[in-house]
Every structure is written in C-alpha cells, then in structure tokens.
Design a protein that fits this description.
Layout (H helix, E strand, L loop, with lengths): L8 H14 L3 H17 L25 H24 L1
Helix pairs in contact: 1-2
Length: about 90
C-alpha cells in the first residue's frame, strides 16, 4: 500500500543511516522498524518462547567438542609445515 508519511528529520536520518549500513532499501528498513515498534507496543509477538532441544552428540566422555577447532588448526599447521619442508628440499 502506498501512503505519504512525514518523518521527523532525526528519524529519517537514523533510518537512512541504517539502510546504508545494512545495505537494505530504505522502505525495508522503515517497514521492519515499524513492525518491531508495533510488536513492542502491543505486546504482539511470538507467544511461545523459542526452545532449543538438546540432543546427544554421540561423543565419548572426556572429549571436549570445543577443542575440535583447535585440533583442526593444529593439523592444518602441521600439514602446511610438512608441505613447506618438502618444497624447500626440492629447491635445494
């Protein structure tokens, strides 16, 4: 629906800055901002809280899944060093 709305200068500036920063059209930023404001003022919004259900990962006790990234980094570094060593030996 097309309508004319007069925005205060400070409101327009914030919306335009948000549109530029997020690389979204002004119209989308305006509509999204209005939706959030309407939901907040009327209390309309998600009626049920989001629930994340846990599930087993199948890991044995003693394994720290947070350490897997560190392990992958170490293995990648070792592979790089091995490749570099081989290249250095060939160039001699």
């Amino acid at each position: 629906m097309r309508t004319t709305v007069t925005l205060d200068r400070d409101v327009e500036q914030v919306l335009r800055e948000t549109a530029a920063r997020t690389h979204r059209p002004f119209k989308k930023v305006l509509n999204d901002t209005l939706r959030v404001g309407i939901e907040h003022s009327t209390g309309a919004g998600p009626t049920e809280p989001f629930v994340l259900r846990a599930r087993p990962m199948g890991l044995r006790a003693g394994y720290d899944p947070a350490g897997f990234n560190s392990l992958a980094d170490d293995l990648e570094a070792e592979a790089f060093l091995e490749t570099t060593r081989k290249l250095m030996e060939r160039s001699r």
